[in-house]
Amino acid sequence: RFSGNSGLGVQTQRHGEWTRQEASMVAPLATIRSKDFSTGTAVSLAPGLNVLNLSYGMYAKAGYSVSQIGWAPEEASIISYATKGSAVVSKAAGNDAVAVGGIKNGQQDYLDLALVGKASAIFVGALSTNGTTTSKAQLASYSNYAGSNPLVQSHFLVVGVTGSKTGLYGTSFAAPIISGYAAIVGSKFTTATPTQITNQLLNTARTDTLVNYNASVYGKGEASLSRALAPASIK
């Protein structure tokens, strides 16, 4: 448990409770469910659009291939859904200041690696603030970045995490914003598939609000809900 203030006064909650609250604040009409990962069971999907928020990583000694990892039912199901496009998967990029899938202290996040190239997966990095065209934002010092892999760059978004105001720092608190955005976009485009919603968020990201935009840092750019919802003529 740790304390923060997301605009409701100071609260002391566990990490998962914070990320759940954040997603529900972005998309208040969405049905929010929590998964107890101590049960060792697959993540189940509900009828309608499913958005899975992953504000965690799976770390092990660097140098293995993804195929060598013995995935638990939870992660195996998540990877399958991202591969098949059954659910939007919003994955916190990580807080090691390395490229997604990179090595820090001899460790790699194999959940990141397993989601590279998956149709409905989005890696989410953190900006130190929200960007505008007149006050551009830059990547938070702790945030992982897209790196040189085009498959990561094409599925990487950034959003502001104003830890100076909330006391909540980390890409863990960037991912739920994208989860909320995906739910909102799905509520407008009700026949869209999770992959189409994923692509809508990726393809409407902004690059003009970022300091020295470079795809190897920011991927597709800063997520823009207004652009993702807008008719093509005013994007």
Descriptors:
about 240 residues; 9 helices; globular; five-stranded parallel β-sheet; Rossmann fold; two-stranded antiparallel sheet; alpha/beta
Task: Characterize this entry briefly.
The protein is α/β, with parallel strands linked by helices and 235 residues long.
Q: How is the largest sheet built, in terms of strand order?
A: 3-5-7-8-9
Q: Into which percentage range does the β-strand content fall?
A: 5-15%
How large, in whole angstroms, is the Cα Rg? 17 Å
According to CATH, the homologous superfamily is Peptidase S8/S53 domain
Low-confidence stretches: none
Element pattern in H and E: EEHEEHEEHEHEHHHHEH
Explain this structure to me?
The protein is an alpha/beta fold. It has one domain (2-234): Rossmann fold, CATH 3.40.50. The protein has nine helices and nine strands. It has helices at residues 15-26, 73-84, 110-115, 150-153, 163-166, 175-188, 194-203, 215-218, 225-229; strands spanning 2-4, 11-13, 51-54, 59-61, 88-92, 107-109, 121-127, 156-160, 221-222. The strands form three sheets. It has a five-stranded parallel beta sheet with strand order 3-5-7-8-9, with helices on both faces. It has a two-stranded antiparallel sheet with strand order 1-2. The protein has a two-stranded antiparallel sheet with strand order 4-6. Helix 4 (150-153) links the parallel strand 7 (121-127) and strand 8 (156-160). The longest helix is centred in the last third of the chain and has 14 residues, at 175-188. It is globular and about 45 Å long. The termini are far apart. 40% of the residues are buried.
